Amino acid sequence: MTKQQLFEQIQKKRSFLCVGLDSSLDKIPQHLLKYENPILEFNKQIIDATKDLCVAYKPNTAFYECYGKKGWETLIETWKYIPKDIFSIADAKRGDIGNTSSMYAETFFNEKSSEMSFDSVTVAPYMGSDSVLPFLTFKNKWVILLALTSNSGHADFQLQETGEERLFEKVIKTAQQWATDEQMMYVVGATRGAAFGDVRKLAPDHFLLVPGVGAQGGDLKEVCKYGLNAQCGLLINSSRGIIYASQGVDFAEKAREEAIKLQQEMEQILMKANLV
């Protein structure tokens, strides 16, 4: 999916919502355990309930890898079930030396060998260009680079001064030598608030994947105040706040209700910014 195609989906649905599929056996409604593959059934019902309200789905691969072979099969089948006009994100946070990163890229992008071909994958930049460039060899695929995250330990490294700039700023500036805003996004946590202004000075045209709205306390309006750009430029992720809105048989219905709340708020923001 190209950047323009993603923006067109945002305009069509009046939404820039990404639904995180962090699906775990100990958190999904217990009545689903009767199914042969409870997590896959959960994911399918969540997707069916929200696919007209969101523009992206983001399975966190750790929630699948932990179940071994069955988990990988669930991840593959989940990817297959995501409508192809919806942006798919493998939230894998990979990052290793070149030949290993090449294999990771094959894992998430080469359907012929792995049975999956996500639109994008999250990548850790700590090992530099060696760990990122192999992902960029795939045409029309995206790298979503960790930049300024929402976790409490982000300050251990990301805010450290490196000369006249902070480390996350150096990551954003350096990474723009590797790819344009047509193939690279950045992860910026919703709890960072006004720091979006600093990010936009360095990356005015890039899309930003923004976790942390909802359960983690990020404020959508504040994120948009500083982070919105001429093509929206934001994918706001909500995981627990949507998919675990109910533990009952009505879980999909309740997930839809929470997604509608966010979509309606996003629609007002897009209209105010004259983007729809």
TrEMBL record:
InterPro entries hit by this protein: Aldolase_TIM, OMPdecase_type-2, OMPdeCOase_dom, RibuloseP-bd_barrel
Catalytic function, reaction form: orotidine 5'-phosphate + H(+) = UMP + CO2
EC numbers, comma separated: 4.1.1.23
GO terms classed as biological process: 'de novo' pyrimidine nucleobase biosynthetic process; 'de novo' UMP biosynthetic process
Keyword set, alphabetical order: Decarboxylase, Lyase, Pyrimidine biosynthesis
Segments forming domain Orotidine 5'-phosphate decarboxylase: 16-255
SUPFAM superfamilies in the record: Ribulose-phoshate binding barrel
Biochemical pathway: Pyrimidine metabolism; UMP biosynthesis via de novo pathway; UMP from orotate: step 2/2
Catalytic EC class: lyase
GO molecular function terms listed in the Swiss-Prot or TrEMBL record: orotidine-5'-phosphate decarboxylase activity
Family in the record: Belongs to the OMP decarboxylase family. Type 2 subfamily.
NCBIfam families according to UniProt: pyrF_sub2
Protein name: Orotidine-5'-phosphate decarboxylase
Species in which this protein is naturally found: Pedobacter psychrotolerans
